[in-house]
Amino acid sequence: MFLYMVAELSALQQIITALTGMNALPVVIVECAVTTIYTSLGGFRISFVTDNIQGAMVVALILVGVITVGVETHVDRSLVESSGLLKPSLLGWQLIYILPVAILTNDFFLSNFWMRTFASKTDKDLLIGVSIATIAVTCILTLVGASGLLAAWTGAWPGDPPQEGSIAFFLLLEKLPAWVVGIVLVMVVSLSTAAFDSLQSAMVSTGSNDLFRNRLNIWFIRATVVLLIFPVVVLALKSPSVLQIFLITDLFSAAVIPVLVIGLWDRCYWWRGLEVVVGGLGGILTVFIFGTIYFGNARDGGNLILLENGLYAEDWSAFGAFVAAPIGGLLWGFGTLAVRLSCQFLSAKIKGQRFDAFDRPPPPPPAFYSGVENSEEDREHVASGETSTKKGKFV
What is the pLDDT of residues 375-384, one digit of tens each? Predict the structure, then answer.
């Protein structure tokens, strides 16, 4: 989430600079200050309000973009053939694997998604909401993705000096009348603010619940998030590419999430945190080993972890990294499991005790989740090993 906050601010400053030519630092500082104030006062509830604003802004931005681009832009047919964007490419085939793995695993790490999942009243409401969002997001991504083609075919991208392909949509809008650019700027800042406050709320929730089990005063957590804003702003202004930031988080997610998901399966109760930690780190190590072998030196192998060459290296390095991360993580995780079980088995034999590594552990007490000391009734409930009969898909 820290890197996502960096990417959000980095994208904002690149867009402001591309559309206006101004220094985007004041805009970034004002956004951070405003979101921090109202998120600290309103909590996660205010994020729901801004989500509605965000949705309306996305629809309005797409409508304005589609209408004005359709009326004002003119495609240079000579650029269509010379761009090569309609021809099959190695990267295109690689992305059929890379994008689903990267996006699916990375979304597991975003607490702002999980908070909305658990905020649903019923599983039916969640299913309806996700279905509507899937259709809307598919339409929006199709239109925004097509703008990259139009930007290349109209000469708006790469521009002079060359700009990142991640802001091709806004480079296309830059060629439109000034009043359209002004509307787009307002919408972009609103969108960025709505997304940034969700990440701030998610950081507070993760720190309070996951790290301190709700035992630490919430204002200490919020103060910590405020302090994190300073390095976020610095990194956002220094970051070379928004795409690279997302790729780094995607690669780390691809290494950690497969071994983590095994522990979420009720039948794999014998899976422990040790396997998750070692598996995740092992997945990253596997990427380094693959890169060292592929490039023939350790330096480039280390750079592959940060995907210094991005996705456009025209080789198999990025594809191999996203294959090595999940497979390596699983191999390291199951290897750690085998070592742990072997050590426990030998220890049980030596001490003359029963080998209980595959015994189902008792459920944790309520205080483990809430941070509030449980009552005597709760202790008896946990000691009896009973589980709730009201169990939903996500509980």
Answer: 554 555 445 5
